[in-house]
Protein: V-type ATP synthase beta chain
Organism: Fretibacterium fastidiosum
Amino acid sequence: MLPKEYRTISNISGPLMMVESTRDVRYDELAEIELASGERRRGRVLEIESDRALVQVFEGTSGIDTNETKVRFLGKVQTLPVSRDMLGRVFNGRGEPIDGGAPLIAEQTLDINGMPMNPYSRDFPSEFIQTGISTIDGLNPMVRGQKLPIFSASGLPHNRMAAQIARQATVISGHEDFAVVFAAMGITFEEASFFMEDFRKTGALERTVLYINLADDPAIERISTPRIALTAAEYLAFECGMHVVVILTDLTNYCEALREISAARKEVPGRRGYPGYLYTDLATMYERAGRLKGKVGSITQIPILTMPEDDKTHPIPDLTGYITEGQIILSRSLHRQGIYPPVDVMPSLSRLKDKGIGKDKTREDHADLMNQLFAAYSRGKDAKELAVILGEGALSDEDKAFAKFSDVFEDTYIRQGEYENRTIQETLDLGWNLLTMVPTKELKRVRDAYIDKYLKPLLEKKAAQGAKA
């Protein structure tokens, strides 16, 4: 039976249009809009009120004549064709191939809104994921099934860091089936080219699925892009048994699109003009990460967002922090010093870090070493602030050692090359090397057994080299 045609568009506002006298139309149903010129556009039903339907047009409403345009409701929701052949492919924000390759032959067609995970069937995240970046692996470890966002700001190298994580991330337990689903929203053509070229050049594209929504694409498409990416990730994780890392950048552009649509719908605005349901909307995406009992695969999420005006209390980072398990915060001052990646270690946090480290996971000394490095860096920063106020003469010998430690820590531990992939063993060994700079009696967060095993051989080696010199 052919879908019924309507020519009853009564009102157009931004990307939205009202269709009157509709029958049997459902929420979230797809619509086809045919203009007088024969051009066809797609839309979906946002709201239903008795015999009226509010339709959101994906390609925008410019050029639509309310008298001549036909609307057909298709009786189905927005779906995504999925297959293992998605790996190595590049798609637009609607899930259509843009890499010049053949159309995808679907093994399944899935609703992009996904299925909510039953909390009872969730498995606890506990397996370490190595990103090759010391500030994450050593100090804020990420585990399989976690949601760990990166809070950035305009002008900081979050895109380069996202590409590095996509290239380097791996499960060190040796699980072969590892994939990355990368969704970029509202980015420029130059940024899109950077991601595609970087992945092709380094060979990371073979295990990656890219979804790219450009800044000049319709804002409406931005709402679908992360959901399409997560649908692909769910298929790869729970149907194909793969460990999937989903990188979403930039979530701020997604939230701006949500605000734009909310304003067009004339909804009562919440904080800073964002819709009151922003928390719920973000949760519907973030909560699609995790592990399921009885399933081999998992979804780990790294949402990246730029904080407007570097403000951590802005609604987007604020609400994200409530839903996710920690955050990695990038620092503008470290970036000015030329340090990459400019991770601000002190406010960064991974709430599940203790679950993925230790004996048989990373190394037995990881937790103690992590706590000691935090403490030493914090004390060094305090000592440097004290020196600015009172002068260096007011510092004790221990404080001077910690102040020097904090400088070297930033220059060797935080700073690393964009294509430098450090193993967790290299990161831990680097941490112990740095602790040789401070008096052993001040190391109160590390067990004596670990000092004897890891630190003393380094001190003896240092003493022998000093004697030779």
Remarks:
- The longest strand covers residues 40-49.
- The CA atoms of residues 307 and 313 lie 9 Å apart.
- Residues 366-390 form the longest helix (25 residues).
